[in-house]
Amino acid sequence: MTETSSAGSLPISTITGDPVARVPADATIADAARAMVTCDVGAIAIGDDPRPAALVSERDIVRAVAAGRNLATTPVVELASTKLVWCDAEASVDQVAVRMMDRYIRHVLVEHDGALVGIVSARDLLGVYTDFDS
């Protein structure tokens, strides 16, 4: 077995350490951007539900800026994605990587017992694979 396949067989829960960053459902785009900077994350869940229905990413905010949206007054839910992709906390790193590639996305929400326990990014996965190559 190669080191890469060893990395790929790890449960995704091994790389979901920090609590999920969130903003309230009534937050503005500016609020979400500030929260991303404060939490040092590239995506943030919208609302306090155990299983949120929306997620906003840095790319979404860049698109809003490019479109000239008023960041201070526009609700973040207007640009947040609602077609969320989930995986179970016990899914392997390889399974999540394939899901990201198949759907051409950068973030997957991780659940355990029906509740959000983490958000995994493509960068997180790259870190797992490169750590095993070192």
UniProtKB/TrEMBL annotation:
The keyword Manganese does not apply. InterPro entries: CBS_dom (IPR000644), CBS_dom_sf (IPR046342), Diverse_CBS-Domain (IPR051257). The keyword Iron-sulfur does not apply. This is CBS domain protein. Residues 15-73, 80-134 form the CBS domain. Keywords: CBS domain.
